[in-house]
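Obj: model holo form, ligand = cobalamin.
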Amino acid sequence: MNSNYEGFIKLLDLEDKDKSVNYALELLKSKKVTLEELYLDFLAPALTTFVCQEKEKEICIWKEHTRTSIIRTILECTYPFVIERRNEIKKLHKKVVILTPSEEYHEIGAIIVNHFFMLAGFESQYIGANTPKNDILMAVKAYQPDFVAISVTNYYNIVITKQITDGIKKNYPNVKIIVGGQAFLQHGAIDQISHDYYMQKASDVFMIAKEVK
Ligand code: B12
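Output (holo structure tokens):
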């Protein structure tokens, strides 16, 4: 574990947004952590390992929302660092569209994956959370991506994800589908979905970059 993680979590536990944001950005500016480390070793675990104290059960939901809002702000603030890195790397001339399906509001993972695609040299576009099937198909038609990456967290969204991936395969058979997210940790979930790549780690997108180089 990075030694700065503890300091970061202490600020988050205090719900001190200003200090948490400054702390994270300072780690990046001073090159104490890379973007990849900030995303995977700080921001992601700060959410996935968040547990509510027994005595705070009644205020648990808003505490989770507050933390998510702080992490979301930090994530968006890292965008200039992503642009800077992207300008230094070789472009792959491959387009990716990233989204979460309708009723899927968990989007921090999808945004992180979008940044990873950019860092790997893809022309990457995050088109949002809770995206209806028809809007996804219209986006594929308009944007003509080489890949569509879908992030699914809730297992009950596997049904709509199947309809979306079947629709993409039927209408745009050359578009490769990448799926990932916590919903696929459920036994059998991935077997229901038309896909070309199943990846659990955001950093796995670098493997696709190697393939298309
Ligand atoms: C924050 C949060 C929310 C926020 C989301 C805000 C937002 N703007 O995103 C809000 C408050 C909206 C929310 C709502 C709900 N949530 Co919630 N939420 C969380 C929490 C605490 C963190 C999620 C998160 O952002 N993690 C951090 C990211 C970075 O991790 P990640 O998504 O796993 O992504 C990583 C990898 O999976 C991977 N990845 C993800 N997608 C993809 C895609 C590709 C292509 C690739 C390559 C990789 C990849 O890369 C990422 C980086 O490592 C989790 C707890 C947990 N254990 O995760 C619960 C959790 C996900 N929520 C849960 C539930 C049940 C709900 C609600 C149903 C609660 C309710 N009763 O209302 C609603 C559902 C809303 C909906 N319809 O979607 C459950 C899900 C259980 C399940 N799997 O079915 C969890 C696990 C909590 C729990 N332990 O019960 N939630």
